[in-house]
Amino acid sequence: MKNLAPTSKPLVSASILLWHSEKFISGCLESLFAQTYKNFELIITDNNDVPDDGVRIAQEFLEKQKGQYPVKFTSNGRNLGFAAGHNRNIEQGRGKYVLLLNQDIVLAPNFLEKAVAFLEGQPNACGVQSRCLRLKEKDGRFEKSQIIDSLGLVMLKNRRIIGRRQGQSAENYGLKQREIFGLDGAVPVFRREALEEAKICLDGRCEYLDEDFLSYKEDVDLAWRFRLLGWRAFYVPEVVAWHARGSGDSAKKGPVGIVKERLKISDFAKKLSFRNQRLMQLKNELPLLFFCHLPWLLLKEVPAWLYFLVFEWRNREAIGGIFKLMPRMWRKRKIIMGKRKAGFWQMARWFE
Predict the structure, then answer these.
(1) Which of 66, 88, 103 is the last residue of a domain?
(2) 320-326: long-range contacts at Cβ-Cβ below 8 A with a sequence spacing of 24 or more?
(3) Residues 265, 152: one domain?
(4) Are residues 88 and 111 in the same domain?
(5) What's the domain range around 174?
(6) Crossing angle (nearest 10°) for helices 317-339 and 267-284
(7) What pTM does this model have?
(8) Is position 193 within any domain?
(9) pLDDT tens, 236-270?
(10) Residue 341: other Cβ atoms inside 10 A
């Protein structure tokens, strides 16, 4: 396929997974193909296990754009999950930078231009976090709002992860560039060099995002790994996108607020989130930092386990999943720690 884009600028590989995407995919693709930065390729994959109208919509859109940019359309034949689906797309890409693009994202026209410009000037940055705002559904349409979706991942001392300023008004906030713990998984732009260093190869398979997680927390796990490897992550406000978030409306920290947010998500999400949180900690914790933060951890973990056992016992297979995957997580931990460059003080500053 002929690439009409100029080749003097670094190539960006955009990865999209289609999964129940019929409501969103047109807007997402339109915003990608309207970018002022033209040197990108698209790897788009049908990740459904049942027929999905979004696949037809995407194919029809791409047929109209045929020849404009390199596009690879594949099908997994089943739902491999967020991590495995994107991993396969990343492997197929050729770009210096990798955009993981949720199907429910709309990009500002200069999103890629601003992201690439920043990364070209920051060789120690693993990637860019956008000023990601909320898409709100109204009368069957999605409208751009000034409500913050996420300004990057925040890791608390109790190991709870939140999106910075999530659910708050963006008015007069978030206009200053800053270094952050890590990139939210909805629309991160990664440096391929960092992804290659962070990948874990085990039993003949290499992973960027942890495929044992399936979905949920894999972005936090990768962010933690980047930090341990000495890479830096940045929030860049000029890089703007909008997200129609499906869960996690706000970054409430109190117990009542946390429970209210948890009640909004599905049992499937609760199960994977509970399991993956503990597996992620097993992989990435520094022992001294863990013991320094033990009071905060106990204040979270004891109520969390009690709540889970009393109110979410129907999801108890998550507990079995933790123990089943522990040996494999320990093997992955040994690989991570064998490559680790950051010590106690470099990591401690990122736990708020």
Answers:
(1) 103
(2) 321/271, 321/275, 322/275, 322/278, 322/279, 325/212, 325/275, 325/279, 326/279, 326/282
(3) yes
(4) no
(5) 105-185+201-352
(6) 30
(7) 0.92
(8) no
(9) 999 999 999 765 554 555 665 566 665 657 788 88
(10) 11
